[in-house]
Amino acid sequence: MIRVKKKTSLALARIAGLAVLVPLAAGCGGGTDRSPLGTVYQDRPPAYERGRPKPLDRVEGPLEVLRGGRFSIAMRENISARQTWNVSGSGPDEAVVRPQGTSTHQTAREKEAAGAGYTKYFTFEAAGPGTTTIVLANRCGTDPARGCYSATLPRTVTYRVSVR
């Protein structure tokens, strides 16, 4: 708390208070995420319904991103459940979206549990205006040569991305 001894100091106290609040407000909201992952879009597979097969290929989006922004798609990966994801084919149109790499995160609880999965982040930068698709393929659902292949596993998730 700032104490004021004279009336003339009141104006200075208000200015000092604003000087403290402005930098705090600048870090709140604002719309530009400065984290290495940027805005994170968590994959949400459809819930299981008895008698109805899970879709092997899904289309999601569109993800709306501002030019110059960074964003990540978070996929649950679990080798024991035969879900291992990679960007498929030639990747997205790099004039619109540029890949920035992948990273993983495993919670303390997941680290303790045998066979637990983790989250894999596919990070991209919005390079220029336009639309493109990012296709993520489950290696165990798309490659019969792999020892983990099964025709009933999810194969692809296609994210439609629009950069403004």
Automatic annotation (TrEMBL):
MF annotations from Gene Ontology: cysteine-type endopeptidase inhibitor activity
Keyword presence, Nucleus: no
Ranges for region Disordered: 33-56, 87-112
Biased composition regions of type Basic and acidic residues, renumbered to the chain: 46-56
Alphabetically ordered keywords of this record: Protease inhibitor, Signal, Thiol protease inhibitor
Keyword check for Cell membrane: no
Proteinase inhibitor I42 chagasin domain ranges (all copies): 67-139
Span of the signal peptide: 1-25
Name recorded for this polypeptide: Protease inhibitor I42 family protein
Organism: Streptomyces telluris
